[in-house]
Amino acid sequence: MKELFKQFWTIPNMLTLFRVVCVPFVMWCTIDPSTYIAVGEYSLPIVGLIIMAVAAGSDLVDGFIARRFNQGSQLGEMIDPFADKLLHCATILSLVIICFVHWAFIVILLVKEATMVVGGIFMAGDSKNIKANYMGKVASATISVAIIMSFFHPFWADKVFYLDWIVLSIGLVLTYIAFFNYLKQAIVIIKGILAKRKAQKEGLTEDAAEKEDAGAEAEKVEVEIVEPDDSDKTR
Known about the structure:
This protein is an all-alpha fold. It is about 80% helix and about 5% strand. The chain is built from nine helices and two strands, in the order ααββααααααα. It has a two-stranded antiparallel sheet with strand order 1-2. β1 and β2 (about 40-45) form a beta hairpin. The longest helix is centred in the C-terminal third of the chain and has 64 residues, at about 165-225. The radius of gyration is 29 Å and the shape is elongated.
Protein backbone atom coordinates (compact mmCIF):
# COMPACT_ATOMS: atom_id res chain seq x y z
CA MET A 1 0.00 0.00 0.00
CA LYS A 2 2.83 2.38 0.89
CA GLU A 3 4.53 1.59 -2.42
CA LEU A 4 1.37 2.47 -4.37
CA PHE A 5 1.07 5.71 -2.37
CA LYS A 6 4.65 6.64 -3.33
CA GLN A 7 3.92 5.88 -6.99
CA PHE A 8 0.95 8.26 -6.93
CA TRP A 9 3.02 11.43 -6.52
CA THR A 10 4.32 11.67 -10.08
CA ILE A 11 3.48 14.23 -12.77
CA PRO A 12 1.76 11.67 -15.06
CA ASN A 13 -0.47 10.46 -12.21
CA MET A 14 -1.29 14.06 -11.23
CA LEU A 15 -2.37 14.72 -14.81
CA THR A 16 -4.51 11.57 -14.71
CA LEU A 17 -6.12 12.86 -11.52
CA PHE A 18 -6.66 16.19 -13.29
CA ARG A 19 -8.73 14.39 -15.94
CA VAL A 20 -10.90 12.80 -13.28
CA VAL A 21 -11.41 16.16 -11.53
CA CYS A 22 -12.44 17.71 -14.87
CA VAL A 23 -15.31 15.24 -15.34
CA PRO A 24 -17.94 17.00 -13.14
CA PHE A 25 -17.07 20.37 -14.71
CA VAL A 26 -17.44 18.93 -18.21
CA MET A 27 -20.85 17.55 -17.25
CA TRP A 28 -21.98 20.77 -15.58
CA CYS A 29 -20.96 23.04 -18.48
CA THR A 30 -22.48 20.64 -20.99
CA ILE A 31 -25.82 20.24 -19.22
CA ASP A 32 -26.37 23.77 -17.85
CA PRO A 33 -27.73 26.09 -20.62
CA SER A 34 -26.53 29.16 -18.69
CA THR A 35 -22.94 28.26 -19.67
CA TYR A 36 -23.71 27.97 -23.39
CA ILE A 37 -22.19 30.26 -26.01
CA ALA A 38 -24.08 31.51 -29.05
CA VAL A 39 -22.53 30.42 -32.34
CA GLY A 40 -24.53 31.94 -35.18
CA GLU A 41 -28.09 30.74 -34.85
CA TYR A 42 -27.17 28.03 -32.33
CA SER A 43 -26.54 28.07 -28.58
CA LEU A 44 -23.90 25.43 -27.85
CA PRO A 45 -22.03 24.00 -24.80
CA ILE A 46 -18.66 25.32 -26.00
CA VAL A 47 -17.29 25.74 -22.46
CA GLY A 48 -17.92 22.06 -21.74
CA LEU A 49 -16.17 21.18 -25.01
CA ILE A 50 -13.12 23.29 -24.10
CA ILE A 51 -12.79 21.67 -20.67
CA MET A 52 -13.20 18.21 -22.20
CA ALA A 53 -10.57 18.96 -24.87
CA VAL A 54 -8.06 20.21 -22.28
CA ALA A 55 -8.66 17.14 -20.11
CA ALA A 56 -8.32 14.78 -23.06
CA GLY A 57 -5.14 16.58 -24.18
CA SER A 58 -3.56 15.96 -20.78
CA ASP A 59 -3.57 12.24 -21.63
CA LEU A 60 -1.04 12.86 -24.40
CA VAL A 61 1.11 14.96 -22.08
CA ASP A 62 1.19 12.46 -19.21
CA GLY A 63 2.05 9.65 -21.63
CA PHE A 64 4.97 11.66 -23.05
CA ILE A 65 6.29 12.55 -19.59
CA ALA A 66 5.99 8.97 -18.36
CA ARG A 67 8.06 7.70 -21.29
CA ARG A 68 10.53 10.58 -21.51
CA PHE A 69 11.38 10.78 -17.80
CA ASN A 70 10.76 7.13 -16.90
CA GLN A 71 7.88 7.98 -14.55
CA GLY A 72 5.64 5.09 -15.54
CA SER A 73 4.21 3.09 -12.65
CA GLN A 74 1.95 0.14 -11.92
CA LEU A 75 -0.58 2.52 -10.37
CA GLY A 76 -0.52 4.71 -13.47
CA GLU A 77 -1.21 1.71 -15.69
CA MET A 78 -4.35 1.02 -13.63
CA ILE A 79 -5.81 4.52 -13.22
CA ASP A 80 -4.94 6.02 -16.63
CA PRO A 81 -7.38 3.83 -18.67
CA PHE A 82 -10.02 4.36 -15.96
CA ALA A 83 -9.70 8.16 -16.26
CA ASP A 84 -9.96 8.01 -20.06
CA LYS A 85 -13.06 5.81 -20.01
CA LEU A 86 -14.67 7.94 -17.29
CA LEU A 87 -14.13 11.12 -19.30
CA HIS A 88 -15.49 9.55 -22.50
CA CYS A 89 -18.57 8.01 -20.89
CA ALA A 90 -19.39 11.05 -18.72
CA THR A 91 -19.16 13.39 -21.71
CA ILE A 92 -21.38 11.21 -23.88
CA LEU A 93 -23.87 10.84 -21.00
CA SER A 94 -24.02 14.63 -20.68
CA LEU A 95 -24.69 14.94 -24.41
CA VAL A 96 -27.41 12.30 -24.09
CA ILE A 97 -29.05 14.31 -21.30
CA ILE A 98 -29.29 17.42 -23.51
CA CYS A 99 -30.45 15.25 -26.44
CA PHE A 100 -27.36 15.92 -28.56
CA VAL A 101 -26.63 12.17 -28.63
CA HIS A 102 -29.16 9.31 -28.74
CA TRP A 103 -29.35 7.26 -25.52
CA ALA A 104 -28.63 4.01 -27.42
CA PHE A 105 -25.02 5.11 -27.97
CA ILE A 106 -24.21 5.36 -24.26
CA VAL A 107 -25.93 2.02 -23.53
CA ILE A 108 -23.89 0.24 -26.22
CA LEU A 109 -20.67 1.82 -24.96
CA LEU A 110 -21.36 1.09 -21.27
CA VAL A 111 -22.11 -2.59 -21.96
CA LYS A 112 -18.70 -2.99 -23.55
CA GLU A 113 -16.87 -0.99 -20.86
CA ALA A 114 -18.60 -2.85 -18.02
CA THR A 115 -17.66 -6.19 -19.58
CA MET A 116 -14.04 -5.11 -19.86
CA VAL A 117 -13.96 -3.90 -16.24
CA VAL A 118 -15.38 -7.19 -14.92
CA GLY A 119 -12.96 -9.18 -17.08
CA GLY A 120 -10.04 -7.03 -15.98
CA ILE A 121 -10.88 -7.54 -12.31
CA PHE A 122 -11.13 -11.31 -12.81
CA MET A 123 -7.82 -11.50 -14.66
CA ALA A 124 -6.08 -8.99 -12.36
CA GLY A 125 -2.31 -9.17 -13.01
CA ASP A 126 -2.74 -11.54 -15.95
CA SER A 127 -4.45 -8.81 -18.00
CA LYS A 128 -0.99 -7.45 -18.83
CA ASN A 129 -0.59 -10.42 -21.15
CA ILE A 130 -3.25 -8.98 -23.45
CA LYS A 131 -1.60 -7.16 -26.33
CA ALA A 132 -3.01 -3.81 -27.40
CA ASN A 133 -4.20 -3.75 -30.99
CA TYR A 134 -4.19 -0.97 -33.55
CA MET A 135 -7.96 -1.14 -34.01
CA GLY A 136 -8.51 -0.11 -30.38
CA LYS A 137 -6.49 3.09 -30.89
CA VAL A 138 -8.33 3.90 -34.11
CA ALA A 139 -11.68 3.30 -32.41
CA SER A 140 -10.79 5.54 -29.46
CA ALA A 141 -9.65 8.33 -31.79
CA THR A 142 -12.84 8.02 -33.89
CA ILE A 143 -15.06 8.21 -30.80
CA SER A 144 -13.12 11.25 -29.57
CA VAL A 145 -13.70 13.03 -32.91
CA ALA A 146 -17.39 12.06 -32.79
CA ILE A 147 -17.74 13.44 -29.26
CA ILE A 148 -16.26 16.78 -30.34
CA MET A 149 -18.60 16.86 -33.34
CA SER A 150 -21.59 16.05 -31.11
CA PHE A 151 -21.11 19.30 -29.19
CA PHE A 152 -22.31 20.93 -32.45
CA HIS A 153 -25.15 18.45 -32.96
CA PRO A 154 -27.87 21.00 -33.90
CA PHE A 155 -25.72 22.14 -36.83
CA TRP A 156 -25.11 18.59 -38.10
CA ALA A 157 -28.76 17.67 -37.62
CA ASP A 158 -29.83 20.64 -39.76
CA LYS A 159 -27.11 20.76 -42.37
CA VAL A 160 -25.29 17.43 -42.83
CA PHE A 161 -27.78 14.69 -41.88
CA TYR A 162 -26.57 13.77 -38.39
CA LEU A 163 -22.92 13.41 -39.41
CA ASP A 164 -21.83 13.37 -35.75
CA TRP A 165 -23.99 10.33 -35.05
CA ILE A 166 -22.67 8.58 -38.16
CA VAL A 167 -19.07 9.07 -37.02
CA LEU A 168 -19.99 7.95 -33.49
CA SER A 169 -21.62 4.82 -34.91
CA ILE A 170 -18.46 4.03 -36.86
CA GLY A 171 -16.41 4.53 -33.69
CA LEU A 172 -18.61 2.14 -31.72
CA VAL A 173 -18.40 -0.51 -34.45
CA LEU A 174 -14.60 -0.20 -34.44
CA THR A 175 -14.43 -0.35 -30.64
CA TYR A 176 -16.46 -3.58 -30.64
CA ILE A 177 -14.16 -5.06 -33.27
CA ALA A 178 -11.24 -4.19 -31.00
CA PHE A 179 -13.18 -5.56 -28.02
CA PHE A 180 -13.65 -8.96 -29.69
CA ASN A 181 -9.92 -9.04 -30.47
CA TYR A 182 -9.24 -8.44 -26.78
CA LEU A 183 -11.88 -11.01 -25.88
CA LYS A 184 -10.13 -13.77 -27.85
CA GLN A 185 -6.97 -13.17 -25.82
CA ALA A 186 -8.91 -12.81 -22.57
CA ILE A 187 -10.69 -16.15 -23.04
CA VAL A 188 -7.34 -17.94 -23.31
CA ILE A 189 -6.09 -16.22 -20.15
CA ILE A 190 -9.33 -16.91 -18.25
CA LYS A 191 -9.21 -20.60 -19.22
CA GLY A 192 -5.65 -20.74 -17.93
CA ILE A 193 -6.66 -19.08 -14.64
CA LEU A 194 -9.59 -21.49 -14.17
CA ALA A 195 -7.40 -24.50 -15.01
CA LYS A 196 -4.77 -23.32 -12.53
CA ARG A 197 -7.38 -22.85 -9.78
CA LYS A 198 -8.86 -26.28 -10.51
CA ALA A 199 -5.42 -27.89 -10.34
CA GLN A 200 -4.69 -26.15 -7.05
CA LYS A 201 -8.05 -27.23 -5.64
CA GLU A 202 -7.53 -30.84 -6.72
CA GLY A 203 -4.01 -30.75 -5.31
CA LEU A 204 -5.31 -29.57 -1.95
CA THR A 205 -8.02 -32.25 -2.02
CA GLU A 206 -5.44 -34.96 -2.73
CA ASP A 207 -3.22 -33.67 0.07
CA ALA A 208 -6.16 -33.71 2.48
CA ALA A 209 -7.06 -37.26 1.44
CA GLU A 210 -3.46 -38.43 1.90
CA LYS A 211 -3.33 -36.83 5.35
CA GLU A 212 -6.64 -38.47 6.26
CA ASP A 213 -5.38 -41.88 5.11
CA ALA A 214 -2.13 -41.38 7.02
CA GLY A 215 -4.09 -40.46 10.16
CA ALA A 216 -6.28 -43.53 9.81
CA GLU A 217 -3.22 -45.79 9.45
CA ALA A 218 -1.63 -44.21 12.52
CA GLU A 219 -4.79 -44.81 14.59
CA LYS A 220 -4.90 -48.41 13.38
CA VAL A 221 -1.30 -49.03 14.40
CA GLU A 222 -1.91 -47.40 17.78
CA VAL A 223 -4.93 -49.61 18.41
CA GLU A 224 -2.98 -52.70 17.45
CA ILE A 225 -0.19 -51.76 19.87
CA VAL A 226 -2.34 -50.77 22.81
CA GLU A 227 -5.02 -53.49 22.59
CA PRO A 228 -4.01 -56.43 24.88
CA ASP A 229 -3.71 -59.98 23.51
CA ASP A 230 -6.60 -62.36 24.49
CA SER A 231 -4.15 -65.17 25.16
CA ASP A 232 -2.50 -63.10 27.90
CA LYS A 233 -5.85 -62.69 29.71
CA THR A 234 -6.37 -66.49 30.07
CA ARG A 235 -3.03 -67.08 31.67
